Amino acid sequence: MLIFLRFTKCIVMTYLKKLLVVFLMGLFYWPMVQVAAQSSNTETVILNGKKYPVPKPWAGSRIRASEQAEFTDLVPLPTWLTQNKSQIYVTQITRQALLKMAKKAAEEDIVLLIDSGFRSAQYQAKILEKYLNQNMDYQGLLQVVAPPGYSQHMLGNSIDFVPSELDFSVSKQYAWLKQHAAKFNFIESYQQKNETGVNWEPWHWQYQSRN
Ligand SMILES: [Zn+2]
């Protein structure tokens, strides 16, 4: 019995010692974790030659340059599908799915029109620079425009429907998309209530391949 008790006591002591070591290590490493978290918050973008900090909700979600759509994979949408018959490019696989969806919608008298597709990070920067040159506030702009390098549009699989504004949420096109888009692998990236912290963009949808 005595041996058993000593044995148990020994195990408990070893366990407690381990706990103490883990606790002390935690005390030691915690400030380092904090510093690492802070330093990851210092993402910046260059606009008009000036460095701007990237605030929430964009910070931490920079899209890698290697993820940008390959130019060779981009194809134009047919002009009947685009606003003002403008040239809008998306990846081949996105185009295929989008055409299928738009044709299905047309059969049900729903006319889907596209306002924007692929946008390079450089183009995204130009959009922001244009607004900054009109004296618009940088923080305010980021409520409605992603900073360059953070927009899904650089992936070539994201599109904006017409009109690309909140009013789209009350259109019959939006109602139709809510009901049918998932069947064509399109999802509403920034829903009314979403965890990303990005404002609601009912007009912005992304093609997500299932593989
Ligand atoms: Zn968009």
Structure description:
There is one protein chain. By secondary structure, the chain is α+β, with helices and mostly antiparallel strands. The chain folds into two domains: 1-39; 44-207, Muramoyl-pentapeptide Carboxypeptidase, domain 2. Helix content is 38%, strand content 13%. It contains five helices and eight strands. It has helices at residues 2-39, 92-107, 121-133, 138-141, 172-180, and strands at 44-47, 50-53, 74-76, 89-91, 114-116, 158-161, 186-188, 204-207. The strands form three sheets. A four-stranded antiparallel beta sheet has the order 5-6-8-7, with helices on one face. A two-stranded antiparallel ribbon has the order 1-2. It has a two-stranded antiparallel ribbon with strand order 3-4. Strand 1 (44-47) and strand 2 form a beta hairpin. The longest helix is centred in the N-terminal third of the chain and has 38 residues, at 2-39. The radius of gyration is 25 Å and the shape is globular. The N and C termini lie far apart (61 Å). Mean pLDDT is 86; it is low at 30-39. Residues 116, 153, 158, 160, 204 line the site of zinc ion (ZN).
